[in-house]
Prior knowledge:
Elements: E1 12-18, E2 27-33, H1 51-64, E3 67-73, H2 75-81, H3 83-97, E4 104-108, E5 119-123, H4 131-154, H5 160-163, H6 169-178
Helix pairs in contact: 1-4, 2-3
Amino acid sequence: MLLPCFQNILTEAGLDEAGRGCYAGPVFAAAVILPNDFHHPLLNDSKQLQQQQRDLLRPIIEKESIAFAVSAVDNEEIDLINILQASYKAMHLALDKLLVKPGLLLVDGNRFKTYSNISHQCIIQGDGKYASIAAASILAKTYRDEYMQSLHKEFPCYGWDKNKAYGTWVHREAIKNFGLCKYHRKSFNIYPTQLTLI
């Protein structure tokens, strides 16, 4: 059972990212401010839901939230600043776009870089504990999956329509056979000896 809020004095925004462990593509992050009385029986950590359930929840979250925003940091910047810093940056960019300024940030995970002097609370496995973080996890995941579908059309050999650039057997075999493409994260040293596609 998800909790509606961490406290009820300050306006809370839930924050989560998607794609941090992927071999290719951007990392996405979402920030969501929900009404304290928001409830949906399906709402949960995005990883616990099927794609169909996430796709059903996304427009409900977008319609019923007080404010939401989604941002991404691409693979080239991930290679420059590292994936942890890129995850923070994606969350900060999402917060930049929020139309309502929160008084407290609920962040999934155990670390965060302070944003604009707003207090934050890091919550391990927070996407399975608080509604706003769960909602953020669903938006980040669905937006990223949608984006990876578009990249799949350019490089179908990697199976990103199914694996979303995670290190599945299909993806690893494709890297062995075809090398890395321009969307792969070179700093991850997946197969550093492979040639890069143009």
